[in-house]
Amino acid sequence: MKLKIVYFGASLAGKSTNVKVLHSILKEKGLTKGDYISMETDEKRTLFVEMFASQINIDDHPIDIKILTTPGQFRLHPLRKVIMKGVDGLVFVVDSQREREKINFLVLRETAAVLKEENMNLFDIPVVVQYNKRDLKDAMPVDELQPICNPWDTDYIEAVATEGKGVLETFQKIVTKVLVKTCQER
Ligand SMILES: Nc1nc2c(ncn2[C@@H]2O[C@H](COP(=O)(O)OP(=O)(O)O)[C@@H](O)[C@H]2O)c(=O)[nH]1
Ligand SMILES: [Mg+2]
Prior knowledge:
By secondary structure, the protein is of the alpha/beta class.
């Protein structure tokens, strides 16, 4: 079985940190296949491809999981479409800082539009919301973030990705959700 998990969210929300930290956690457990790969554009050093592969076994069935991030910049809309193609599960990385409230919402709206162009519905795909940067002073209370950033009313996790807090939990939760959905559809 092959799964594709995409981390999306505003620029600087902590997507790359999540994926890098996750890669090192899974590598330690011997659950990665190959290296963490990233490529950036020359002028602004914007990451535009970032991914790694993991393989886990459930009851002796190998499950190949590709983990990717979407670039936050709105100008990279076409690339976001390519990355979202065939996505099985999404992680919405939210920057908890109050000053990022609006951008979090705009990214959510834009992501819905990207998926629609690919004939997918944001509400049909398993999602986990990660409230990141919980260590910062101006982090909004989760009660205030929920109505803005969790229209699915789905599971959320509070994280400090730089310290590795919540990173593995987020990944486990999205993989579980995807597998449950897959089983229900069979
Ligand atoms: N204080 C704090 N900083 C974080 C956290 N997660 C990421 N950062 C920092 O936020 C910046 C952007 O993170 P990055 O992972 O590159 O964001 P991306 O643009 O979404 O990929 C970097 O300087 C990170 O070190 C966190 O939980 N707390
Ligand atoms: Mg990044």
